[in-house]
């Protein structure tokens, strides 16, 4: 078994659109490793640097963001995190365990250079598991904390980016995401293998599972679950190709075991061991941190997926057909981002029938939010169309002929139909289907519509 934290002068390269933008953590950090961070291009990390032939493990992408966070990607807080092979390994592996009477005074806990996990059994007894350096793995940690051991800072996701609204109104909801939520260990010799574990090491390189945390001992080994748990769902079949189906949600333990779900998110009783599944991330594996859901895309899978440039070209191709509004007879332009340049050219879709039109007052029913479509006379809601531009969420390549309902994000037919069937954890024991681009819950059955453009009319 393997794990780590890096308290840390080593920072992974945080990459967006091929640029290394992550800065190394402060070398003055008192918990730094003895070896300093070495950037592939020397001591400094600059925005114009690009990693030369860096080995890429994969990407973690937060559901609900269409390519960037609403306030903008900054440092370790962003919508996407790219995992690259580190200049020096920082993984750790289990070495020994023993029982102590006063865990907070034990040498392993007090030694800030020693990685350890403390399982508190009672006020007078705890099991300490020590971890030693592992030259074969790289460790990456994810959580809500902005402390240096966390490589990817993840905050709660609000549907439709309403986090900005919530902040402006002064509403700060209590987060259910753990400060040190989980860790991923990537195999340096086989980059296709990346394993996920619940909980991450803090600045003192410790993980504490308190007296109330779910834990157990079997075959002289101890393991446990975190308060709200880390859930994973592997796809059944190849995610990239459009034939995959969603799998079953499981819970991963601190030691990397895979279990069926507890009765509720933080129930005391653990689920059953799932023998035929493991904690190795597959292309398309979903990771739920109770407040945010992440998608893992392998480097291999991403190589077969459309790029952002490919998606932009598809938008350009539709716009080149000069789709028209059948009422105003004006040309419509599909925007790449939600904020449209021209309200007059902004296309709208009638969610009941799929006809794409411009903004007009025809069919507006008095005191109702619905409109009657002038093409087929079906009444229903309308919404602005916008391209789903985050490539990681696509299960295949092709024209964006469908849109999610009720948000209007466009994507390929197979992509829309895949996500419509994925039930994302919601609250302590509920599940809902959401648009991966904005996290808005899907409405209606099905939660999408086929788009009907009036184009190539000249």
From TrEMBL:
Cross-referenced InterPro entries, in alphabetical order?
Answer: Pellino_fam, Pellino_FHA, Pellino_RING
Q: Where is the composition biased (Basic residues)?
A: 27-50
Parts forming coiled coils: none
Q: Name one Pfam family in it.
A: Pellino_FHA
- Tell me where in this chain the Pellino FHA domain is found: 50-313
Q: Which GO terms describe its biological process?
A: protein polyubiquitination; regulation of Toll signaling pathway
Which residues lie within the region annotated Disordered? 17-51
**Phosphoprotein in keyword set:** yes
Q: What are the entry keywords?
A: Phosphoprotein
A GO MF label: ubiquitin protein ligase activity
Q: Does the keyword Transport apply?
A: no
Q: Which residues form the Pellino RING domain?
A: 318-458
**Hey, which family's this protein in?**
Belongs to the pellino family.
The identity of this protein, by name, is Protein pellino
């Amino acid at each position: 078994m393997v794990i780590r934290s890096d308290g840390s002068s080593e920072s992974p390269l945080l990459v967006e659109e091929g640029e290394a933008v992550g800065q190394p953590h402060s070398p003055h950090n008192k918990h730094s490793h003895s070896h300093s961070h070495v950037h592939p291009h020397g001591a400094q990390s600059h925005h114009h640097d690009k990693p030369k032939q860096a080995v890429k493990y994969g990407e973690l992408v937060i559901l609900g963001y269409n390519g960037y966070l609403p306030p903008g990607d900054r440092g370790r807080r962003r919508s996407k995190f790219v995992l690259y092979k580190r200049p020096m390994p920082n993984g750790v592996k289990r070495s020994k365990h023993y029982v102590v009477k006063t865990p907070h005074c034990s040498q392993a806990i007090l030694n800030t250079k020693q990685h350890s996990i403390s399982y508190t059994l009672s006020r007078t007894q705890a099991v300490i598991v020590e971890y030693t350096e592992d030259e074969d793995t790289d460790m990456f940690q994810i959580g809500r904390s902005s402390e240096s051991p966390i490589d990817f800072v993840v905050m709660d996701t609000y549907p439709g980016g309403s986090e900005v609204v919530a902040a402006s109104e002064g509403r700060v909801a209590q987060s259910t995401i753990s400060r040190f939520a989980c860790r991923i260990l990537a195999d340096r010799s086989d980059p296709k293998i990346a394993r996920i574990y619940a909980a991450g090491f803090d600045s003192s390189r410790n993980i504490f599972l308190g007296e109330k945390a779910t834990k157990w001992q079997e075959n002289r080994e101890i393991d446990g679950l975190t308060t709200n748990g880390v859930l994973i769902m592997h796809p059944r079949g190849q995610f990239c190709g459009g034939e995959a189906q969603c799998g079953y949600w499981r819970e991963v333990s601190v030691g990397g075991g895979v279990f069926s779900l507890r009765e509720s998110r933080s129930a005391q009783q653990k689920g059953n061991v799932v023998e035929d599944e493991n904690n190795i991330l597959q292309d398309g594996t979903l990771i739920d941190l109770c407040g945010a859901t992440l998608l893992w895309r392998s480097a291999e899978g991403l190589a077969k997926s459309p790029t952002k440039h490919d998606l932009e070209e598809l938008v350009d191709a539709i716009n080149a057909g000069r789709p028209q509004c059948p009422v105003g007879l004006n040309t419509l332009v599909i925007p790449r981002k939600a904020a449209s340049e021209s309200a007059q050219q902004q296309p709208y879709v009638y969610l009941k029938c799929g006809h794409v039109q411009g903004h007009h007052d025809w069919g507006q029913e008095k005191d109702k939010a619905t409109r009657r479509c002038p093409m087929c006379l079906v009444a229903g809601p309308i919404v602005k169309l916008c391209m789903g531009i985050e490539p990681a969420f696509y299960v295949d390549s092709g024209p964006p002929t469908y849109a999610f309902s009720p948000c209007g994000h466009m994507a390929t037919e197979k992509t829309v139909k895949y996500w419509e069937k994925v039930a994302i954890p919601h609250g302590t024991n509920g599940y809902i289907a959401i648009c991966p681009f904005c996290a808005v819950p899907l409405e209606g059955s099905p939660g999408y519509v086929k788009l009907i453009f009036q184009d190539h009319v000249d």
